[in-house]
Specification:
2 domains, DNA-binding, binds 2-oxoglutaric acid, oxidoreductase activity, alpha+beta, Arc Repressor Mutant, subunit A, Oxoglu/Fe-dep_dioxygenase_dom, transcription regulation, 15 helices, Jelly Rolls, disordered C terminus
């Protein structure tokens, strides 16, 4: 998509207009904006990890630090990193220069206005879905790695020190990310170089999003950033020391992060959750805004190379711990989802759990890829599926093709949709059949007549082409589907 689906309104302009009421588009449903709850004392804050001496060439990773990291990543998916070696001066100046940028006249910033093609530049929304509810923030997004994507001309030329400062900051934080990759690998019990290798060696990606959250006249009705998990490898965040706002999910509660002076907040993102086979958690987080103070944060997303398939590390798998994410997909494929839909909690990474390899249940065995797979639907995937069917106008209109398109779940195939139909008989959606009998217990071919004739043709075509491609069963399929 070349352009945003609706004209862009800068949140900063809305804030500065002095309006007492935020536009309808920013009002979140009550379930999304429940206040952070008080949680027991001991779980009140994300762990703090001190890696003093990291910048020293001779730094050795102590077992204690590795244990602290693995506990933090398993339990919280977040930690604060102190004594990390990045110069305090560089951190402060980078933050300052970006604050100045957001306070430039609007026409200076609009020069860098971004589009959904690569997001680089000045932006005010993430997803491209028309009529989506929006977040109360503007941002600037830029690429740091791979080097060939770093385009200084796309970075603001004002304030004059911004490009130099951002480059310096980026280089220092990327260096820290190299250590973090080693630390995360070792705290998973893997070789020091495992993550780096799995993420594409020297071709890792890194990008920076500077988020600006203007004052909001009705902060209780909206969010600065909706709940989401980060799609890439991990994130190194320089939060606003003076204005809290970041909240991390802990069970059913939201815990407010209190950034320590000079600390970075590190969080595991979806690709490391996959690589660790779910041991390290990519945890949902969101941002609250307030009426008195603006807030600025700088998130550096460290990502795998776009075209390397990411899957659980073999060494972490066993018969007791089978692969939760057996379909290795690339980060590029994964990112498509976010670009389409914007930020949606843990929707996408949970969807990848849908399938486990198992040969026991013949009924649900599907072909495709290497070997045969048995489908297992998690509650999360069921929820996505149900939402997709609803979005498509209910069971009468939903077709497997439409469902696949709407869900945009990487790795999901028609075979999974078919499996769902078989396993759950779509009892929640499919209206009772004409004779009034429930669909429960019926075969797939018996369910199809409950769809409209147009949908039936589409379902048949979609299933047929998939099965032909995957299983080479043309003849059989012709017989079983086309006479419905
Ligand atoms: O502003 C913050 O504290 C968090 C930013 C964030 O979560 C993001 O940019 O993905």
């Amino acid at each position: 998509m070349q352009e945003w689906p609706e004209p862009i309104v800068r949140v900063q302009s809305l804030s500065e207009s002095g309006t007492g009421n935020i536009p309808e588009r920013f009002i979140k449903p009550p379930s999304e904006r429940e206040a952070a709850q008080l949680v027991p004392e001991m779980t009140k804050s994300i762990p703090v990890i001190d890696v003093g001496g990291l910048a020293n060439e001779k730094y050795t990773y102590s077992e204690e630090t590795m244990r602290a990291i693995s506990n933090a990543c398993e339990e919280w998916g977040f930690f604060q990193l102190v004594n990390h070696g990045v110069s305090k001066d560089v951190m402060e100046k980078a933050r300052e220069v970006w604050r100045e940028f957001f306070h430039l006249p609007m026409e200076e910033k609009e020069v860098y206005s971004n589009s959904p093609t690569n997001y680089e530049g000045y932006g005010s929304r993430v997803g491209v879905e028309k009529d989506a509810t929006l977040d109360w923030s503007d941002y600037f997004f830029l690429h740091l790695l791979p080097e060939n994507q770093r385009n200084y001309n796309e970075w603001p030329n004002l304030p004059t020190s911004l490009r130099k400062m951002t480059e310096k900051y980026g280089n220092e934080v990327v260096k820290l990310c190299m250590f973090l990759m080693e630390m995360l690998s070792m705290s998973l019990g893997l070789d020091k170089g495992y993550i780096r290798e799995a993420f594409g060696g020297d071709d890792n990606g890194a990008c920076l999003r500077v988020c600006f959250y203007p004052k909001c006249p009705q902060p209780d009705l909206t969010l600065g950033l909706s709940a989401h998990s980060d799609p890439g490898g991990f994130t190194v965040l320089l939060a606003d020391e003076n204005v809290p706002g970041l909240e991390v999910r802990k069970g059913d509660s939201w815990v407010t992060v209190q950034p320590l002076p000079g600390a970075f907040i590190v969080n595991i993102a979806d690709q490391i959750q996959v690589l660790s086979n779910g041991t390290f958690k990519s945890v949902e987080h969101r941002v609250q805004v307030n009426s008195r103070k603006e807030r600025l944060s700088m998130a550096l997303f460290f990502n795998p190379k776009g075209d390397v398939p990411i899957g659980p590390a073999e060494q972490l798998l066993s018969p007791e711990k089978p692969a939760l994410y057996p379909h290795n997909i690339t980060f590029n494929q994964y990112r498509q989802f976010i670009r389409q839909k914007g930020l949606h909690g843990k929707y996408q990474v949970e969807s990848l759990k849908a399938i486990v390899t198992d040969m026991e249940d013949d009924d649900a065995v599907m072909g495709g890829g290497s070997g045969k797979k048995r489908m297992r639907w998690t509650p999360e995937l069921r929820e996505c599926f149900e939402r997709a069917v609803d979005q498509l106008g209910g069971p009468d209109r939903a077709t497997p093709k439409g469902i696949l398109k709407t869900m945009s779940v990487p790795g999901l195939t028609i075979a999974h949709v078919k499996s769902y139909l078989q396993k759950y008989r779509m009892s929640k959606f499919i209206p009772e059949s004409s004779d009034g009998g429930k669909l429960e217990g019926r075969k797939f071919s018996e369910i199809l007549p409950n769809f409209s004739s147009t949908s039936r043709v589409q379902i048949t075509e979609a299933l047929q082409s998939h099965m032909e491609g995957q299983l080479g069963l043309e003849d059989q399929l012709e017989a079983s589907f086309l006479d419905i």
